[in-house]
Structures are given as structure tokens and as C-alpha cells.
Amino acid sequence: MTAEATTDREALPVELVDERGRAVGACPVSEAHAAPGRLHRAFSVLLFDADGRVLLQQRAAVKTRFPLLWTNTCCGHPAPGAAAADAAVDRLVEELGIRAALTEVGAFTYRAGDPATGRVEHEWDHVLIGRFDGVPPRPDPAEIADYAWVWPADLADAMAADPDRYTPWLSGVLGVIEHAGEVPNA
Q: Which residues are catalytic?
């Protein structure tokens, strides 16, 4: 993906929401993430393999928010009026070359500023899970620097030991999944 394509992603519209998740408008991605941040709809996906490991990605260095941090399998923003699950399925293909059936297990709201870029995440984040086994066939280097399969318990220990290596929303994603009873016992 070129820098021009990255700029285009920043111009895509996101759906602004109120504190209850109800649509209240739209604006470009770049505007939603400008300080102090505008609450908007997003999604986070976690894929598990048959053994119960979770697929994580390290965000690419060119990302405008939280570059090079480890996070959930993929994330993004549904277009205004679009279903989060449909947008998430499409984003998995774009970022990793993966197709997987996804199930929404909950949502949460968070706000986090990126001190390195000055951008702000303020998102109503839909959390989706799915199943995938194997190696991602086409990780997009403009999106993903690296990826790894990890055991959930090892991830929890690693996040506790060095939280600055992970995106600020990852703990919320894992909390939604745990609360829904969806973390495999591994």
C-alpha cells in the first residue's frame, strides 16, 4: 500500500456516535482522531485457532496512531450506516488475506491519546471473534509489521509486564471477550 492509499484511508468517513452508541453524524477518519478526539464507531477482531491461541498483529510503522504496538488481529471503522461485522470481514481480507466468520460479543468505549503522534482514539468499539487456523496468506506491510499466535494467558502476563508494547484498547477487547465467556481455556 502506498502513502497515497494511507492518506485516502484517513479521508474515509466514520460514523460519529453519542455516549449510547447512537449515530449522530459523520466525519473523516483524520478529523475523528484529531485531539481531543470525537466518539465514533470502530471494531476490533480477535481470531482464535483450534488450540485456543489468539492471532495478534504488530501495527506497521507508518500507522498514524500507535505505530509498532501489538494489538488484536485487526481493527478498523465501519462506514456510516454499515454493520460492524460486515466491515470487519472485509478488513480481515484487506489486512491479512483471511476470510473468517465473525460473531460480535460486545462493545466498549475508550479514549486514548498517542503521545508519539498527537492523535486520539475515542471509540465505541464493537468486539468480534472468529476462528482461523494457519498462516495469514497476505499480511499487508502498510498495515502490519509482524504477527504472532499467542496463548491468552501468556498475552495477559506479557501485557502486565510491559503494557507499553500493546495498544491501549487491547485490554478492553480482551475484557469484553472474557466477560462474554469467549476466551478459550488454554
A: 75, 123
121 marked ligand binding residue? yes
Higher pLDDT, 6 or 89: 89
Specify the residue for cell string 469467549.
182
Range in 2-11, 74-83, 119-128, 144-153 with the lowest mean pLDDT: 2-11
The three three-digit cell numbers of residue 101, written as one number: 466468520
* Bond from prior residue into 78 cis (ω within 30 degrees of 0): no
For strands 74-76 and 23-28, give the pairing: unpaired
Calpha distance 11→60 (Å, rounded): 19
Question: Is 178 marked as binding a ligand?
Answer: no
**Whose CA is closest to 142, among 57, 85, 77, 80?**
57
Query: Which domains occur in the chain, in start order?
Result: 11-180 (3.90.79.10)
Residue 75's DSSP bridge partners are: 44
User: Do the annotations mark residue 122 as ligand-binding?
Assistant: no
